[in-house]
Each structure stands twice: as C-alpha cells, then as structure tokens.
Design a protein that fits this description.
Blueprint (H helix, E strand, L loop, with lengths): L11 H4 L11 E7 L4 H11 L7 E7 L4 E7 L2 H5 L2 H5 L5 E7 L14 E5 L2 E11 L2 H10 L11 H9 L5 H9 L4 E9 L3 E5 L8 E5 L2 E5 L3 H4 L4 E5 L5 E5 L2 E5 L12 H6 L5 E2 L2 E2 H15 L6 E4 L5 H11 L7 E3 L12 H5 L1 H5 E3 L1 H4 L3 E6 L6 H12 L4 E6 L21 H4 L2 H8 L3 E4 L2 H7 L15 H4 L7 H6 L8 H5 L1
Parallel strand pairs: 16-19, 19-20, 20-21
Antiparallel strand pairs: 1-4, 1-10, 2-3, 2-4, 5-6, 6-7, 7-8, 8-12, 9-10, 9-11, 12-13, 14-15, 17-18
Helix pairs in contact: 6-7, 10-11, 10-18
Length: 496
C-alpha cells in the first residue's frame, strides 16, 4: 500500500478551484501560405484550436514587404473579433498561436508567435510542446551574450537559428532543431516560406492541409474543417516541411525512429471531431469507455458522464454495459475562470458554478460517473458529493484512463508528483478521498486495446504514456540539472 500523503488536495474545502484540478492543454499552432485572406483564415483556425490554450492568442502576417504582429491576452474571439484588428494584419501569409503556458509567465511578451529580424530577414515562429533542455540552452545562450526578450522556451529556437553557421535557411533551421530535446510542433514563417517541424518522436501533433490550393499547417484537423480546407496528411515524426512559391519540400534530418505520439491527445486534449494519427478521437474515446465497462463493470441504473470530457467514454461504457446513458450533470458553459468568488461560502460551492446535478435523473438511482482522468481529485470529490446531495443511492466512479502517477515535461501542465492523487494514494485511498462507493481505472493495456493494439509493448511502447508508466521517451536534461517540476521550469528564474 502506498503512503497516504496529506497535501493541498486535502484542503480542498478552503482552497477549491475547479480549473486547478484539470490537465491543462498545451498550445495550438496554425499557418497558411499564399492566400489573400491569410489573417482572417488564421483567426478562424485558432478559434477551432481554442481548447488547446485560453490564456493568449497571436497572429503574425507578411505582406510582401514587412511583417505585422497582433498578440493579445485572452480568447481568440476577444482578440480578433473586430475587423479593424484583422485589417492590421495584411498579406497573403500568416501564422497564429493559442497559448496555455507551461514555461514562462502569462504576460504579453510571452505571447506567440515570436518574431525576430535575422541577417537573412524576418522569422516568426509558434510552438506547441515543451523543450526538456530549454533551461540549459537558454542559460548557455545568455552566458554567450544573447539578449532574451521573453521567458518562454520557444525563443531558444530563434537564437539557435540566428547563430547557425549555414547559408540556406533550411540548414540553419535544422541545425537549431538538432540541439533540442523534448516535444515540439513548430509552425514558422519567413518572408518567402511557411515552415513546419515535428519532433523526432512525433509527441505533439501537426497536420498539413490545403485551401484553394494554398498550404496550411495546424495542430488538429478540426482547424481545417472550420475553414473548409482539405486534409492532406499528418506531418511525420522528425519531418521538416517547407512551402514556398516553388511548392512543397520535405526534409527528414533525423535518424528514423518509431513514432510515440502523446496518448493524452486521444484521452483529453484533441477535440472529439479531430482525426489524430488516422484515428477519430471521438471513436477512440468511446472505445476506451467500452473497454472500461468490460474491465470494471458496475451494478447500476444509469451511466452519467462528467461533462464535457467524460461524454464519449460514458457513451461507450453505456453501450458496452447495456446500462442507460443519461445527462445526470448539466454543465454551465458560461462561467469563466475569473468569476468573482468573494466569500468562503461561495468558494465552497465552486464546482456548482460549472456543474449542476440533474436531480430527476440521479435521485434514488445507482449511478456510474464516467470521467477521462483524475488529477488532484478535488473536483471528483465535489462531484460525488453533489450526486449524493441530489439523492443518488450509490455512486460508482469509473475513469477511462489509467491513474496519473508521474508529471509531464512535454507541454502538459501537470502538478508536481506529490500533488497527483494517484502518486500518493493507493486505489482504496483514492476511493475514500473522493467518497465513491467504488472506483476503477482503465488499465494501461486497456488504453492500448482501445487504440487498436493487443497490449502495450514494454520494450518499444507505441505511445508516449509516461504519466501512467514513468517511461519518459526523451532525456530530461533540465530535470536532472535542477530536480524541478514542470511549474518550476520558469525560464525567468533561470535567466537571472
């Protein structure tokens, strides 16, 4: 039995924040080359990718002579809704970025795309992922005289490209990429090119599409769908693509490696209507729910999803179990993160601002709550209690992924390990903490079966799944140097 370590999650009644008990999305990138409405199309693409980052959004365009940049804190709809903002982004090429910070503060100078004037011309870039040697690279660059304008690891690639001793841009860009460790999907733009790159393991996603014959790069296919673009293919792991007036070029500068895409793209991050790695995210999540029903059945009257993330898995669980599916929890979509909570009594009701019990469905019933994951456990505990307050006879909790026992260093903002409920409690301890009658998680092999594999290959895993297994696929240089957590990877501190 694991040690039952008290932590901040056990003070949830006094410091409860529903948003703090979810995995934070990484970022989203978008780019288009050669289209007269480049900035407006980019804004629409970012709107489709809003789920990947809600802290800030930015667009950089090029009009044939100069670059134009608009970067704002807040949502895409707030930042780029007015026509006059788009009009300040002329040109037929543009790239954009939505951000949730995993390194660097939420301040305007960290909002991407970042831009720099290099000796060969301007270069703008946006990044989805996280560099596991970004702190070391930044420290080395600063010690060599580099002047950093932001506190985000994305700026490192600008300096590496600027210092590369090659003539062609592609060679300079690749020289910079060779020095990076970790996960990245880059979309960049010069005065002549649209550039995309994906890390050698393909941890973070990147897709290629076309609209009116113009190439597009985006984090997910849902960004293509919103503008009526045609999906062409995924950018391969370790691939660098260049689009210019002469067409498309593909470069593969890294030794061949088996791809290990992030399993959380399927469990949580990607939009359900996206196709990731040739798989429908919605269908995969339903299959995970069906696998969960087979592994951990429950005697119950109704299946209730925890909205919105648990909905597809709950549908799959209901179909596989034959138990009716009902909306026993109603989500309020109009509550923002900045809702005023002036008193302790209101803070105690925090979960009800976003979720309300559907008493007519729940009262007197044995219910199965289905969610995609448990992080700290505070929200799960509040929801279980809300179901009991609504008259639920029994509350069984089922999670359509394995227990999260290890933090992430590739762009997902997970808490420190001692704040992950599954890292400090065994299964019975977790059940007691959230207050459910029973608790069960989908197994690691169950996740792989849902993805179309018989089981996880213990020697060469098919996905990046370290949050469940502790099997990190790359070197963690910064962690070895300072034993820091993801939230301690503040590049601002390292630059002092």
């Amino acid at each position: 039995m694991q040690k039952q370590t008290p932590g901040p999650e056990q003070n949830a009644d006094t410091e409860f924040d529903p948003d703090a008990d979810r995995l934070r999305e990484e970022c989203g990138v978008f780019g288009i080359f050669g289209h007269p409405d480049a900035a407006a199309i980019t804004a629409l693409g970012l709107h489709a990718l809003q789920h990947r980052g809600q802290e800030a959004a930015g667009i950089v365009s090029f009009d044939g002579k100069r670059f134009h940049s608009e970067r704002r804190l807040g949502l895409v709809g707030d930042a780029f809704a007015r026509r006059e903002i788009i009009d300040r982004l002329p040109g037929n090429s543009a790239i954009g970025h939505v951000r949730y910070s995993t390194t660097g503060e939420t301040i305007l100078r960290n909002v991407q795309p970042l831009f720099a004037e290099l000796n060969a011309g301007g270069f703008a870039i946006g990044h989805n992922g996280n560099l596991t040697n970004g702190v070391k690279l930044r420290r080395d660059l600063v010690n060599e005289g580099a002047m950093m304008q932001s506190t985000t690891d994305t700026e490192v690639i600008l300096h590496l490209v600027a210092r590369a001793r090659r003539n062609r841009f592609i060679d300079r860009f690749v020289e910079g990429l060779r020095q990076l460790e970790g996960a990245y999907a880059f979309v960049g733009m010069t005065n002549k090119k649209l550039v995309g790159a994906r890390d050698p393991l393909g941890i973070r996603p990147l897709v290629y599409g076309t609209l009116d014959g113009c190439p597009i790069l985006a984090s997910e296919t849902c960004a293509l769908d919103i503008i009526g673009a045609k999906y062409v293919r995924d950018i391969e792991n370790g691939e660098v693509v260049i689009f210019d007036e002469d067409g498309a070029q593909s470069h593969k500068p890294f030794p061949p490696m088996a791809a290990r895409p992030c399993i959380f793209e399927y469990i949580y991050f990607s939009r359900p209507d996206s196709i990731v790695g040739g798989r429908s995210v919605y269908d995969v999540r339903k299959t995970m729910g069906a696998e969960l029903a087979r592994e951990a059945p429950a005697l119950a009257d109704v299946i209730v999803p925890v909205p919105d993330s648990g909905v597809p898995a709950a549908i799959g669980f209901a179909q596989a179990s034959g138990i009716p599916y009902e909306l026993g929890i109603i989500r309020n979509h109009y509550v923002g993160r900045t809702f005023i909570q002036p008193t302790q009594s209101i803070r105690d009701q925090g979960v009800r601002l976003k979720h309300s019990a559907n008493r007519a469905v729940v009262s007197g019933k044995r219910i199965v709550l289905v969610d995609d994951s448990i992080v700290r456990g505070t929200t799960s505990r509040k929801i279980v209690q809300m179901m009991r307050d609504a008259g639920a006879k029994e509350v069984h909790f089922r999670i359509a992924s394995p227990p999260i026992t290890h933090p992430d260093y590739y762009g997902i903002d997970t808490p420190e390990r001692d704040k992950l409920l599954a890292a400090t409690h065994d299964l019975e301890g977790m059940r007691q903490f959230i207050g459910a009658d029973t608790l069960a998680f989908l197994s690691v092999d169950g996740i792989y079966r849902a993805m179309g594999f018989e089981k996880r290959d213990p020697v060469r895993p098919q996905f990046t799944d370290h949050c469940f297994t502790g099997d990190y696929p790359t070197t963690l240089t910064d962690q070895g140097a300072q034993d820091a957590s993801p939230r301690q990877l503040s590049l601002l501190a390292e630059a002092i």
